[in-house]
Design a protein that fits this description.
Elements (H helix, E strand, L loop, with lengths): L4 H13 L21 E4 L7 H15 L3 H4 E6 H4 L9 E5 L12 H8 L5 E4 L6 H9 L4 E3 L1
Length: 147
């Protein structure tokens, strides 16, 4: 997937201006450390990957048990979210092209909504580099980021 020059420039500018949040505590992958309890799943940007995302979300919900649906937050493009059945999930946020700025990155309102999300782990389901989800992952304050 080719990323446009204006998106590359916007990502470079965001990285240059971003403040590093070092206040989040580290997370251990061993059984003796703190484990992840709340998850943010970022849906893929392409509709062709929606079936994989749907299966992953159902497997996560089943693995977390009866309270699994309340521990998972879902964020992604509206065109992919409409293809997935969100019946069992309580907290999801979909964005459209109107929520992106002129460089194709998340706008102020979407960034502000992402900064308020409190999770232990961010799981990005994009198979290739996606500028929107990379920006969202850098905005969300979580000790564990995968993808």
């Amino acid at each position: 997937m080719e990323v446009s020059k204006k998106t590359k420039a916007a990502l470079w500018w965001k990285k240059l201006r971003a403040n590093k949040n070092l206040e989040s505590k580290t997370m251990s992958l061993s059984t003796h450390g703190r484990s992840a309890l709340r998850f943010l799943i970022i849906l893929p940007e392409h509709t062709t990957e929606s079936e994989l995302a749907k299966r992953f979300m159902l497997a996560m919900r089943n693995a977390l048990g009866p309270a699994g649906a309340s521990q998972i937050r879902i964020l992604g493009p509206a065109n992919v979210g409409n293809l997935i059945n969100m019946e069992g999930f309580h907290d999801f946020l979909f964005f459209t092209e109107a929520d992106l700025n002129r460089w194709g990155l998340p706008g102020k309102e979407l960034n502000w909504a992402c900064q308020r999300i409190q999770v232990d782990a961010v799981l990005d389901l994009n198979q290739a580099f996606a500028p929107i989800s990379a920006t969202i992952c850098s905005t969300v304050n979580a000790p564990l980021k995968v993808g």
